Amino acid sequence: MHNKLASKHSPGKPYLARQAVPIRELHAGHTKEILRHLLQLNDGDRRLRFGTQTSDEVIARYVAGLDFSKDAIFGIFDLNLKLIGMAHLAYLPEVRGGVRAAEFGVSVLLDGRSKGFGTALLQRCAVHSRNTHIDTLYVHCLTSNKAMMHLAQKAGMSIEYAHGDADAYLKLPPANSSTIVEEAVNEQWADMDYALKQNLKRSNQAWWWFLGRPKLAP
């Protein structure tokens, strides 16, 4: 795979839709949310995400092994602060020729699908990759993963097929002032969105506690 990354993979007309949802960069404090998110994937979704049948124990080890100081992980939260979409951008060892690549993996829960979250997460990771001097975005998946294959094709990735697997590559241009500003704005927007949802959740919890508390004695 590293030899393939060292070669040139230039997509014809790369397309990445503009991010339509706030996407927050996750840290070690989100480990429980990440584990809860992945455990909600059914057997079929786990196979598509990890390329093989994946037990709860394997997922727990995967989450425990996440290195937030090395890789980048992004998430989409719903109104209840449930992590419904997640992307893992894993930085790969630099290969001969100075090519720097990162592998993109994504999962979206059932109630978050068909809303463009996968495309938004890919766009977020592409911008972050450019700003961290990554020149090739890489995806490995099963050819039966129709959602990922569609996402890769829509992004203009160059795709190679072999024995039921697919490798997709997207050559990224260098960072510029626009990508740096875009990421900074998105980070601020996502943090503000999360804080608002957090306050709303606390307000709702307080309201329901008030409605459900026993009446005071006269």
Automatic annotation (TrEMBL):
PROSITE patterns: GNAT
SUPFAM superfamilies with a match to the protein in the record: Acyl-CoA N-acyltransferases (Nat) (SSF55729)
N-acetyltransferase domain location: 21-176
Coiled coil: none
An annotated Gene Ontology molecular function: acyltransferase activity, transferring groups other than amino-acyl groups
Official protein name in the record: GNAT family N-acetyltransferase
Keywords: Transferase
